[in-house]
Amino acid sequence: MPDRKALLALADGTVYEGVSFGYDGECGGEVVFNTGMTGYQEILTDPSYKGQIVTMTYPEIGNTGINPEDVESNRPWVEGFIVREAWGPPSNWRHVESLDAYLRRYHVCGVAGIDTRSLTRRLRDGGSQMAVLSAVDPDPARLVKKAREVPSIVGRDLVKEVTTDRVLHWDTGDWDLEKGYLHASDYRARFGRIPRIVAMDFGIKQNILRMMVANGFDVTVVPAATPADAILAHKPDGVFLSNGPGDPEGVPYAVGTVRALLGNVPMFGICLGHQILGLALGGRTFKLKFGHHGCNQPVKDLATGRVEITSQNHNFSVDPDSLGGKARITHVNLNDRTVEGISVPSARCFSVQYHPEASPGPHDSRYLFARFHRYLLGEEEL
What we know:
There is one protein chain. The chain is of the alpha/beta class. It folds into two domains: 5-149, Glucose Oxidase, domain 1 (3-Layer(bba) Sandwich); 159-376, Rossmann fold (3-Layer(aba) Sandwich). Helices cover 20% and strands 32% of the residues. The strands form four sheets. A ten-stranded mixed β-sheet has the order 10-14-13-15-16-21-20-19-17-18, sandwiched between helices. Strands 1-2-8-6-4-3-9 form a seven-stranded mixed β-barrel. Helix 7 packs across helix 8. 51% of the residues are buried. The model has no long low-confidence stretch (mean pLDDT 96).
């Protein structure tokens, strides 16, 4: 079969030509780059990437194929996928299909064969921008015009497109090589008390839920628009504010809910949940030039001086000056000094900007789930 041509057109007028793989169609979104060397399957299925076309800086993608155990949701959420080389036949004992077949099945457009280093430099120097990826329209000028018409993610509510539509109970824990994912009952004997958690689903990854179960929580997941009184009706010991896509200012209903919960129940937030908590405290957020996307972001714990290598995926950050002393800054990014963690002991809440479930990524920060458990049991202070 001959190569199928595909074009990537950026809003600044730059056009890259490559080879289509996955679905032969057309998509639009904000182009970002991810610096992880592994974990493309988890990246594809992370709801936080809704609205974005992801560029992988690592050159060979697809080697291990796709397996049903490593997905972070029930489908891929990226708008499009850009790689230097899309590997053909997978070489891994766990794979059940190729990356190409998986993307075709879910109608996700991909392009290979372009200079991803050039594209990454352009995004790094000029900032993330809107783009169109097409295997059906061969006209570069027309595609550039389309790219300039793609809606920005600023101010948009992307959470409503990825959140669950019903309340559900999560009972799957961490992975065991011999048994697969363990059931919640396998963890009960390890903990004297099992705190009840309500997780607000702004686009939650499954491995976050698995880590909660593995660290001794009973987890109920609720839709993002669930009001505070309905959350408190579950009589939770704590509330978890999840990751998710887009601009935190695009979900004012979630900010209002978290504001109503402040002081009434302990809370732990990550990623978008961290930003929503910042807004609920009266702070502001701002859009980063090209965001943090990858599993190699260095973060410093200001209390201990310890540096953690973290997994991250976000485009917005909390403005520390806007908090006006209402929260203690606990962690900072060593690359750009942005806020990576806050704590408000008086309101019984804390949050981090990164992904402690590390899927994919290093496990340096998984202790945060255990810290939340100990806090709810009165064994540790914030």
